[in-house]
Amino acid sequence: MNNIQAKENLFICYSPYLREHLESNGIEPLIEGLHPKTKGIFKVYWQTPELSKAIKQYKQMSKKLKEDDVNGKSKQLRDNR
pTM (2 decimals)? Predict the structure, then answer.
């Protein structure tokens, strides 16, 4: 496998929310690191069908939460606490 092929098989994640979702679905990172300029934590995952499915699921959940927020449902849930 050459360098380009290796990069295509990796997914780098900077979002702590997405990382939490991936790991709660049993997807373990290969490595984690610290971005040299921003000092933000990132994790690297193998690009697999399971990873793709979990990312798609996360995007759908995020979209639904945004739609609910726009429609006022999130505010209602917060107010009812």
Answer: 0.72
